[in-house]
Amino acid sequence: MSFIAAFVWSYFLWLVLTAGSKGMLWSPQELIAGLLFSAIVGYATRNIIGEKASRFLNPVKWVLFIAYAPVLFWGMTRANLDVAYRVITGKIRPGIVRVPVNLDNDAQYTILGNSITLTPGTLTIEACPEEKALYVHWINIPEGLEWPESSEPVSGPFEKWARRLGE
Fold first, then answer.
1. I want to staple 113 with a disulfide (CB 3.0 to 4.6 A). Which of 61, 67, 73, 124 is the partner?
2. pTM score > 0.85 for this model?
3. Alpha carbon 111 to chain centroid distance?
4. b/e string for 71-102 if b means 16 or more Cβ within 10 A?
5. What is the pLDDT of residues 78-104, one digit of tens each?
6. How many CB atoms lie within 10 A of CB 5?
């Protein structure tokens, strides 16, 4: 099943990235090359993805991901404006914070860590599932939030979405 999931995702990504070249949606050569490369990616990553790969083929997860995209985009927009303000004014207070999280598996940690890193001004340095925490570099640590008690001040609603998407 992990081969099929990797193959489908690779082929979908191939089709998205090659659409519209040379005046047509896809040429026959592009479709065949996509099948070949997707098969190679699927075979090479079949042991990396693992047995839970079928969750990536679940249509409910796709719908949730589409619903999550505006949330992530809004978080990125707000963070961009905040970073621009901090660059102009010089008001920064950088540091590394330990962010406690309530996540169950690696996929949820990956989704949350990448979502935090995609928002300017924050960078996930390390995920520690054994501590149930992420270590995040933050461009401006507000007073009193040096040791946050939840992920809300750093990641906003991203943890809830990571839980839903990574189940």
1. 124
2. no
3. 4
4. ebeebeeebeeebeebeeeeeeeeeebebebe
5. 999 999 999 999 999 999 999 999 999
6. 21
